[in-house]
User: Which sequence fits this backbone?
């Protein structure tokens, strides 16, 4: 049976993991490769690396890092952050990334999604959607790291990028992100039911039960978290044992 | 051992190269007819779309060479599908090494079939040391149905060919290079065939 995926997300700046990570048994938790290897051993199903640096010079460092990650880990990984052109993606895939995640660039230029899918195949094109709910607007898509509201209603945008060739949606609820109060089940479910491709729930994970809800109630295919794993508030082997006991298909 | 990975600009070549490196094996990347023909073993990766991959193979005359190879050969993912006869993806004629069709998943489940799924009914030395029900990483929208050449199967929701063998041609729909320790073992098994 196809299993639900648990995905730790690592923010990268200048080739180092950003969020203060607490690990006793890793020599250098700021080293993305060390951390990635540790997560792979823990049973993470995939990893996401987001480059949060800005300049082109720093981006070159990121491509080298991607190569280093690919050299050392034996599970799939997605890379994102600042991708705006087919050429950017080519560099990252050639370096050994399995998928790329694009966000603001898809909003600026939806044609990019189609170009990437045609050139490299839908299977490696993840479109990341940052979404926020207000009573006045409903669920809307936000661009530029969640700072700019767009005209797009979230479900419509998800359907559009899938039509253009996205092979996966990474859906982050800005209302829930950082709250540890659980994933945004309603919008995750709405998007998951509206599109034919897998959906990754992101933002708000605080307990093991939250992951179960994302899979069972919201029909997410995967769930992503960052600090919850980095600070070891929750360990992946415990999480997977819990989900398995709940009757959810996981790899463990 | 002279191990060659077919490099035809449609493969996740780097990942396969790194996976072999982790096993302590150096491989050569090549699209050169003579180099591939002379290899002890050949790995044929592939991601992307079938018709453009076939165009890349034809541009290098590899559509003529690959069917004539006699050494152990391992097609991975799209590299497995390309060994078959015809794909519904882009209505594409393939290499016709293995007389099987490639079909699109017709299901209410999500497509692509993406993530870790179980290997079952393992019946080949390729799976030595691999337990029934072991998980492997998949990402694909098209599949090869069960056949006489199926040496492992996976269900989504119906069973399909997870791996094939026809003479010296072995193939896996999943990605051994991305399937953790089990995947490494399968690659290692291929190297000892």
Assistant:
């Amino acid at each position: 049976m196809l299993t639900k995926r648990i995905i730790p997300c690592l923010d990268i700046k200048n080739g180092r993991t950003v969020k203060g990570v607490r690990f006793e048994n890793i020599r250098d938790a700021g080293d993305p490769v060390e951390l990635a290897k540790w997560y792979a051993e823990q049973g993470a199903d995939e990893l996401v690396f987001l480059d949060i640096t800005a300049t082109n010079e720093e981006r070159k460092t990121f491509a080298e890092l991607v190569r280093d990650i690919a050299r050392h880990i034996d599970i799939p990984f997605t890379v994102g952050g600042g991708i705006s052109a087919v050429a950017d993606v080519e560099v990252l895939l050639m370096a050994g990334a399995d998928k790329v995640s694009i966000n603001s660039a898809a909003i600026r230029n939806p044609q990019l999604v189609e170009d990437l899918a045609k050139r490299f195949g839908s299977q490696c094109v993840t479109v990341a959607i940052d979404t926020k709910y207000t009573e006045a607007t409903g669920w809307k898509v936000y661009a530029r790291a969640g700072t700019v509201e767009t005209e797009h209603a979230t479900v419509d945008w998800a359907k559009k990028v899938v039509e253009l060739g996205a092979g996966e949606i990474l859906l982050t609820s800005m209302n829930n992100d950082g709250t540890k109060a659980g994933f945004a089940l309603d919008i995750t479910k709405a998007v998951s039911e509206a599109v034919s491709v897998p959906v990754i729930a992101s933002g708000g994970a605080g307990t093991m039960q939250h992951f179960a809800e994302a899979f069972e109630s919201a029909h997410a295919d995967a769930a992503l978290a960052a600090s919850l794993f980095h600070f070891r508030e929750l360990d992946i082997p415990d999480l997977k044992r819990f989900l398995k006991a709940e009757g959810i298909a996981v790899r463990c | 051992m002279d191990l060659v990975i077919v490099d035809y600009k449609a493969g996740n070549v780097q990942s396969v190269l790194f996976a072999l490196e982790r096993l302590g094996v150096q491989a050569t990347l090549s699209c050169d007819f003579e180099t591939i023909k002379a290899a002890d073993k050949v790995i044929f990766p592939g991601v992307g779309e079938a018709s453009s991959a076939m165009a890349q193979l034809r541009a290098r005359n590899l559509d003529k060479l690959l069917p004539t190879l006699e050494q152990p050969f391992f097609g991975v993912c799209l590299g497995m599908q390309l060994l078959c006869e015809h794909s519904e993806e882009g209505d594409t004629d393939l290499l016709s090494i293995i007389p099987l069709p490639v079909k699109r998943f017709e299901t209410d489940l999500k497509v692509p079939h993406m993530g870790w799924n179980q290997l079952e009914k393992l019946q080949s030395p390729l799976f030595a040391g691999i337990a029934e029900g072991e998980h492997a990483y998949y990402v694909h929208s098209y599949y090869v149905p069960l056949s006489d050449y199926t040496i492992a199967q996976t269900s989504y929701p119906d069973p399909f060919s997870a791996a094939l063998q026809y003479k010296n041609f072995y193939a896996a729909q999943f990605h051994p290079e991305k399937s953790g320790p089990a995947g490494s073992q399968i690659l290692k098994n291929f190297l000892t065939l």
